[in-house]
Amino acid sequence: MFDLLRAEARKAAELIMRHDFIRIFAHYDVDGISASAVLATSLLRAGKPFHISYVRNPASDELEYSSDELVIFQDMGSGYPEVISSINADIIVIDHHFPYGKATPTRTFVHVNPHLAGLDGSFELSGSGTAYFVASELGENHDLSTIALLGIIGDKQQITAGNAQIVKEGLERGFIEERKGLNMISGKLKDVLWLSTEPYLGFNEPAEVDEFLEDISLSGDIELDELDEESEEKLANAIAIRLLGNNAYEGVFEQFIGRKYWLRHELVNNAFMLSEIVNACGRVSEHSVGFALCMRDESYLHRAYEIWMRFQSEVVEEIRKRRAEVQEGECIRYLIMERAPTTGPIASALSRCLFSDRPLIVVNIKNSIAKVSARSNARIAEKIDLAAVMRMAAEKVGGTGGGHSVAAGATVPPERVEEFIKEVDRLCYEFASV
C-alpha cells in the first residue's frame, strides 16, 4: 500500500521540481488548510515559489492560472474529472476523497490519492496526510507531521494505516507527544464544557455546567490541561455517562477519551485545539489566518483565538437553537436552516452526540445558495454511502455533491431543497434495504 502511495508521491515531487512556479487550489476546511501548509513549507524549503487560493467547489469557483504553471489541487480534485480535464497545464491532485469518473487531462497529470493505493481515505489517510507523503519526497520534512495531524483530527479520522505512520514518525522524532487524557479543547473546565462541540454535551444554560461540575466535585476555574490523572478520569466518566444518556454514537468515546496529542514546536500545543482554531478560520473565510498559524507565524495567534471564540460561540448557540427543529424522513433526519454561520460542525455535533441512529442532512440557505452537510457514522456507512447519495441526489436537482461515506456535502439550488431532501431519503432507504 505505502509503496504505491510513495511511488505516486515521488512522481508528484519530480514534477514539482521541474516547474518554476506552483499554483495551488486547496479546500477551505482544516484538512485543506493544513494540507496547503504542509506543501507550502516543503516548497519554501525546496526554493519553489507558489500562490495558494482556497476554494469551496472547484466546479463552480473561478480558477485562475497560467498554462506554464504547475496546478495543484489539495484536499479536492479526485471527484471532479471534468475540472481536471478542462485545465491546460500540468496538474497534480493530492486528495483523499473517493475518485469518481475518469479525467482526460491535456498535459502531464499525477494523482496522489490513498484510494488508488489500497487505503481508505475516509479514515486511514487525510488530505493533509497525503500532502505529507508528497512533502517527504521533497526533502527532510518530518516536522510537518504535526501539521498533517491537524487535518487527521479535523476530519475525525482514525490513527491507523497511513495516519498511524505519520504520527509514528512525529513521535519518534520528538515533534509529537502522546499523553493520556481527554482529547478536547483547552481552557477552564466551565468554558470547555459549555463551548465543546466535539463532543457536544447538550447544556442549555451555564448553570447546568456548574451543577454538573459540582456533582463531581471539580472547580469550573481549573484549566482542563492542568488536571491531575484522577480528576481527568472522574471528568471523563461523567461526560461519558451524559453522552450515553443523550444517545451519542459509541465511536465518539474512543475519539476523545484515552489519549491526546501534544505538539512540541507549534504555537498551540494541544493538537485538537489547534485543529479547531484552524478549522474556524477556514469556516469564516479567514483562511490566511489559519494558514499563518500552520506556518508558525506568532503574529496571527491572538487574531486566530478571537476568530475561534466568536465562531465556536455562534455554533454552540446555533446547535442549541436548532436541535428542536430536526425533522424525520423515512430513513434520514434533516434540518433546514437559513443564514446559519456554518453547516458542517452543526451536522457533526448533532449526528454524533444527539441523533446517531440515522443519517443527518443539514441544509443552510444563505446568499442564494443551499449548502448541504451530511453526516453518519461507521455503523451506518456499512450500508449507506453518503458520498454517493450526495452526488446522485445533487445531480438530480442541478447541483453537485460528494465527499466520504460518513461525511459528505453538496451544493444545490435553494428552490429545489425539498426535492433534494426527498431524493436523499429515497436513496438512503434504497441503500439500507440492500
Q: How would you sum up this structure, described in words?
A:
With 434 residues, this protein is an alpha/beta fold. 45% of the residues lie in helices and 17% in strands. The protein is built from 17 helices and 13 strands. A hairpin with a 2-residue loop joins strand 10 and strand 11. The longest helix has 22 residues, at 301-322. The model has no long low-confidence stretch (mean pLDDT 96).
Structural key phrases:
Diaminopimelate Epimerase, Chain A, domain 1; 3 domains; alpha/beta; inorganic pyrophosphatase (n-terminal core); 45% helix; 434 residues; 5-stranded parallel sheet; 6-stranded mixed sheet
Overall structural class, as computed from helix and strand content, comes to alpha/beta
| Percentage of residues in strands | 15-25%
* Coarse morphology: globular
Q: Distance N terminus to C terminus?
A: 30 Å
* Strand/helix succession: HEHEEHEEHHHEHHHHEHHHEEHEEHHEEH
Number of domains: 3
- What's the level 1 CATH class of the largest domain? Alpha Beta
Largest sheet: 6 strands, mixed
Number of strands: 13
Spatial order of the strands forming the largest sheet: 8-9-10-11-13-12
- CATH fold annotation of the largest domain: inorganic pyrophosphatase (n-terminal core)
Name the poorly predicted regions.
none
In CATH, the architecture of the largest domain is Alpha-Beta Complex
